[in-house]
Amino acid sequence: MSRIIIILCILLLAGTAQAQFGLRAGVNSFTLSIQSEEDQQASASRKTGYHAGIFYELKLTNKVSLLPEVQYSRQSTNLQVVNYRVADGGYQGDYRLQLTYLAVPILVKANLGKFFLEAGPQASYLLAAHEEGTESLGYIWGTTQNDVDRSATNRYRRFDVGLCAGAGVKLPAGFRLGIRAYSGLVSLTHGPIAYYNYGGSLKNQVMQASVSYLFKTGS
Questions:
Q1: Does residue 169 fall inside a structural domain?
Q2: Strand, helix or coil for residue 188
Q3: Distance CA 175, CA 137 (A)
Q4: Backbone phi, then psi, for 108, in 5-degree steps?
Q5: Could you read off the pLDDT of 74-110 as tens digits, one per residue?
Q6: Which of 163, 209, 213, 217 has the fewest CB atoms within 10 Å, counting from its CB?
């Protein structure tokens, strides 16, 4: 392991003259990939959010670059949940789910003249989650409905891992326009930890449109 770290450090130091820092910001279009079960169903509608981050572009060759990035991402969706595993009348929830992540994509970028392609893995840490809406719970004697406005960070997994792919165009003066798609590989849910929790699979699906700026290297 120590040899690998030393080799990576040598490569980064050797490529410092070819490296550039940059800023990236834009909008998110977010929804969830859902795997429903017979007695649990869910649906999510796509909502917009935003992201902002800093990246480091290290040229490996004239055409290929390594692109590590640290990104703050705010993602929202309207989530409807039905859970018939509750013994009496079942549970229904209808609320806006807002997720805030610190994301670290590490992409390989192919430079094709004025255009570029990029792809690679991304790891994310859930900073906060919030639910706002209504929920109802059925009992033998009837149904109760409540308004909810609560922190929900502990109801979702803190770590997410997935794959990114994107494309873009280079503009004058160091600016770039790009689009990127992210697909999570890990479900956000812990499983049926509480009667009101959805135990099926919920995976992040994010589309991003962004503007980035690449700082010039010193001479």
A1: yes
A2: coil
A3: 52
A4: -100, 130
A5: 999 999 988 876 656 678 889 999 999 999 999 999 9
A6: 217
Q: Is residue 2 part of a domain?
A: no
Give the confidence band of 204 by pLDDT, cuts at 50, 70, 90: very high
Domain annotation covers residue 11: no
* Domain enclosing residue 136, as ranges: 19-214
Helix (H) or strand (E) run with residue 10 in it: helix 2-14
Assigned domain for 1 exists: no
Q: Is the CB of residue 105 less than 8 Å from the CB of residue 122?
A: yes
d(CA 206, CA 99): 12
Average pLDDT, the chain: 86
Q: How many Cβ atoms are within 10 Å of 68's Cβ, its own excluded?
A: 15
Cα–Cα nearest to 121, from 170, 67, 187, 189:
67
Reported pTM: 0.85
Among 118, 94, 116, which residue's Cα sits nearest to residue 107? 118
Distance (Å, rounded) from C-alpha 35 to C-alpha 43? Answer: 9
Domain of residue 109, CATH code: 2.40.160.20
Tokens of residue 24, six digits:
């990236």
pLDDT in tens, 37-72: 777 888 899 999 999 999 999 999 999 999 999 999
